[in-house]
Amino acid sequence: MLIPGRKSALAAEPAGQRAGAGAGVPAIAADATELDPFAVAEQEFKALRSARAQGLVDAREFRRRVAALMVTDAEGTQWIPSPQDGAWHRRDGAAWVPGLPLRRLLCPRCGHHNLTRHQFCVECGAKMYSG
Description:
- It is a single chain.
- This protein starts with 11 loop residues before the first strand and ends in a 16-residue tail after the last strand.
- The longest helix is centred in the middle third of the chain and has 17 residues, at about 35-55.
- α1 (about 35-55) packs antiparallel against α2.
- The chain has a 4-stranded antiparallel sheet.
- The chain has helices at about 35-55, 60-65; strands at about 10-15, 15-20, 70, 80, 90, 95-100, 105, 115.
- By secondary structure, it is an alpha+beta fold.
């Protein structure tokens, strides 16, 4: 599932694998975490880090895929996990600075960004699932 405002570094591929993984980068299950694009990026980062540790992805490809995990939040701020440890960094002009993104859930019905404390979408009233 492609999250609005974000591109997946690991596109879905048949047989439970991710594109470009070749042998063994597992697919991320489609579930309620996909409502939170940051959670999806974190899961994909963990899968990439595991593939890198197993020697399935070289250093250059790993950094390229981590860069593709960029998330743009509802305010238009770009966020990316650090290739070293997965900690979030936000774009501040030309630099990436450490930070913690405000976690939001995407409404499954209308795509509105809701705070994680909301049980229902503030835009359309649909039930929100937080995992």
